[in-house]
Amino acid sequence: MPELSTEANVGRIFILIGFIVGFIGSIAMIIMGAAMKSLVPNLTSFFGVFYVILGVVMLVGSVIGVFAFRAASNHEFRNAAILGIVSSIIPPLNIFTLVGGILCLTSREAKERR
């Protein structure tokens, strides 16, 4: 099997970093929202619900990031790029996954037809 290009390797690493950061951030947002809702129910219940909803949306983006990393590990860099870019634009913007998706899209392996 030929060696992968630098763009493909760096793109795969950036997608992995973006997934890890997004997953940790989403869990932190869910915990913070649940704590805000339970500690002071009158004033911060709106913000607690907002943080929980934002954490769940971030978790969905992280799950798509897992699929992007899996596609990149299977040398399907065009699919990994599409999934990485979709995962990055789910709020809030994940720059690591966006850069990884763009690098996978511009790699030599993505341009080759299967």
Structure in words:
It is a single chain. The chain has about 110 residues and is mostly helical. The chain has one domain. The chain contains five helices and no strands. Helix 1 packs parallel to helix 3 and helix 2 packs antiparallel against helix 3. The longest helix has about 35 residues, at about 5-40. The radius of gyration is 17 Å and the shape is rod-shaped. The protein starts with 5 loop residues before the first helix and ends with a helix. The mean pLDDT is about 90.
Q: What's the topology here?
A:
Elements lengths: L5 H34 L5 H29 L3 H13 L5 H12 L1 H4 L3
Helix pairs in contact: 1-2, 1-3, 1-4, 2-3, 3-4
Radius of gyration: 17 Å
Which oligomeric form is depicted? single chain
**Count of domain modules:** 1
Distance between the termini: 14 Å
Count of discrete alpha- or pi-helical segments spanning 4 or more residues: 5
Helix content estimate: over 70%
Features:
0% strand, mainly alpha, 114 residues, 5 helices
Please provide a brief summary of the model.
With 114 residues, the protein is an all-alpha fold. Helices cover 81% and strands 0% of the residues.
